[in-house]
Write a structure and sequence with these properties.
This protein has 447 residues and is an alpha+beta fold. α3 runs antiparallel to α4. The longest helix has 19 residues, at 227-245. The strands form two sheets. A six-stranded antiparallel β-sheet has the order 1-2-12-11-7-8. A hairpin with a 7-residue loop joins β7 and β8. The protein has ten helices and twelve strands. The chain is elongated and about 120 Å long. Helices cover 20% and strands 17% of the residues. Residues 36-130 are annotated as: Disordered. It is an enzyme of class 3 (hydrolase). Keywords: Hydrolase. Its EC number is 3.1.3.16.
Length: 447
């Protein structure tokens, strides 16, 4: 027995209206015999919740017809299902302004469209503080440090915003300063969480009116408590002492010795903490740091140091030899001085950088080192911590990385030297001051 083809009102492929008995679509040629017959079962509920009509009543439903265009040669207009007015299974028109289903209902009773997905929110919650909310907060009092993230919260003494909790960048992470013809740059480096170096630069006039340039660089001892406070106190005190003594006629080398003593007292005072502070950290040493400084006048170059921070002499004429002006207070230097090891062997040892001299209450004995030089040609003094010279240890290596125009562009040169250390790995804090020799006359334009 031949099966009956399903009776369709429109082509399943192009929705072209069909007539009874069509085997193929007249518009697209779709094979209507390939359309499967509808199942015999009937749903117990229609989409709008009404029960199905009996078969004898369902045939009498007045379904809407697609209007035909005028003229036999004109193709009928293609209509979408939404173009026709909706009716229920009993032929009753559905209201056009049917409300959306109540919350939780997955189906619209008017259109049959499912609403399983919740409506998209107009806004999404922000991970960072909403600036519109922050704008409504009261404006902090004038002079209060404001958070760089939400720009409304006050920053607490620990460096965190009290509103959003954002950690604030530390002022000492990167510092640059020019003082007339000399300049200094300090950077935290790439491995340390804070900068424990500090510097002080300045200029003054000697009693005869000639200029004097002062640079002090300090490196906090990381194994001690509060090394950043130690380096800051020492650099400030030494700088202030030199700038006060030189205009009074004190010889630069004597002024340097006194400045180191004053810096030592400043660091020692940091150890005078309440007993409770020492109880919380009994295993830590007192605050400590190293120091290296230079004084440059038109005819004299003086350096002073305690620890392993260094000063180098780099002549403008690179055909002349450069020189290291300081000797480290370190285990390696002691081994070399005693003739027990060669310099190569000593600095290859893991104990090489263990310092034997520093500023601090726990120092064995304070031995300030000073030396004076009278160079016969112009050049620059590079005053730096081991965060730089670890990447240019010998005087020749340092001369290779100091820019040729360092005497007239000291800030740029200091930036280049810090960049050299960072490019090399930046394992430590990096601080360098570049001081031209001889000291230019007061008011001279550099660069």
């Amino acid at each position: 027995m031949m099966s009956q083809m399903p009776q369709l009102s429109a082509c399943p492929s192009c929705e072209e209206p069909l007539e009874s008995g069509d085997r193929f679509c007249g518009a697209c040629g779709y094979d209507l015999s390939a359309v499967p017959a509808p199942p015999d079962d009937h749903p117990t509920l229609t989409m709008n919740g009404a029960g199905p009509l009996p078969p004898e009543e369902a045939t009498d439903v007045n379904w809407p017809l697609v209007p035909q265009p005028e003229g036999a040669e004109t193709a009928p207009t293609v209509h979408l299902p939404t173009d026709l007015p909706g009716t229920d299974s009993g032929g009753t028109p559905l209201p056009s302004d049917s409300p959306l289903p109540p919350t939780g209902s997955p189906v619209s009773p008017a259109t049959g469209v499912r609403f399983d997905r919740p409506p998209e929110p107009d806004e999404y919650p922000l991970q960072a503080p909403d600036p519109r909310v922050a704008a409504e907060l009261p404006t902090p009092a004038e002079g209060t440090k404001v958070c760089v993230a939400c720009r409304s919260g006050r920053v607490d003494p620990d460096g965190y915003c009290e509103n959003c909790g954002h950690a604030q960048p530390r002022e000492r992470d990167h510092m640059e300063q020019e003082s007339g013809p000399l300049a200094a740059v300090s950077d935290r480096g790439l491995r340390h969480h804070r900068n424990e170096d500090a510097f002080a630069v300045g200029q003054c006039a000697l009693p005869d009116g000639t200029p004097a340039l002062v640079a002090v660089v300090c490196d906090g001892v990381s194994s001690a408590t509060r090394p950043d406070a130690a380096s800051l106190a020492a650099s400030r005190k030494a700088g202030e002492s030199l700038l006060a003594a030189l205009p009074q006629g004190t010889h630069p080398q004597q002024a340097m010795h006194e400045a180191i003593i004053a810096a030592s007292h400043a660091v020692n005072s940091l150890a005078e903490e309440p007993a409770t502070a020492r109880e919380h950290a009994p295993h830590q040493n007192a605050p400590a740091c190293t120091l290296v400084a230079s004084v440059v006048t038109p005819a004299l170059l003086v350096v002073g140091w305690v620890g392993d921070s260094r000063a180098y002499w780099i002549p403008v004429d690179r055909s002349s030899p450069p020189a290291r002006l300081t000797e480290d207070d370190s285990w390696a230097a002691q081994m070399v001085a005693a003739g027990l090891m060669s310099e190569t062997e000593a600095y290859a040892d893991e104990r090489a950088h263990a310092i034997t001299g520093w500023l601090g209450a726990d120092a064995y004995e304070l031995e300030p080192h000073t030396a004076s030089f009278k160079p016969d040609r112009p050049g620059v003094v590079v005053v730096c911590t081991d965060g730089l010279w670890n990447y240019a240890e010998s005087a020749e290596e340092m001369a290779e990385v100091v820019p040729p125009d360092a005497m007239v562009r000291p800030l740029h040169s200091a930036q280049v030297l810090v960049g050299h250390a960072l490019d090399g790995g930046g394992h430590d804090n990096v601080t360098v001051a570049v001081v031209p020799f001889p000291a230019p006359p007061q008011g001279a334009v550099i660069g």
